[in-house]
Fold this protein.
Amino acid sequence: MGNDTQMLGIVYGGRFTSLAPRGIVAARLTQIQMQEARAPESSEIDLARYEGDAILIRGVASGGWVYDAEVVSQAGPILTLVVERLFGMAHEHMV
């Protein structure tokens, strides 16, 4: 992967919302590279199994997509709650 960045975020509604670095809102992840002559949807990563969890990803963010994306790590419920509180996220499942 060239020019890739690690991003920490939470999956809501099947989309990745970046918390660090900020500025990537409701992104979709795809395994294709930016320069490929294919639609990013053709290799979109299904984030359903990560719904509501904090994940660490690696990829290249552009135009609402993270290209050449890879999920590096998935947090459990306790760490996800810590991440939400640390970044000021307020959701109904928080205590």
Remarks:
- The beta strands are 5-12, 15-20, 28-29, 54-62, 65-74.
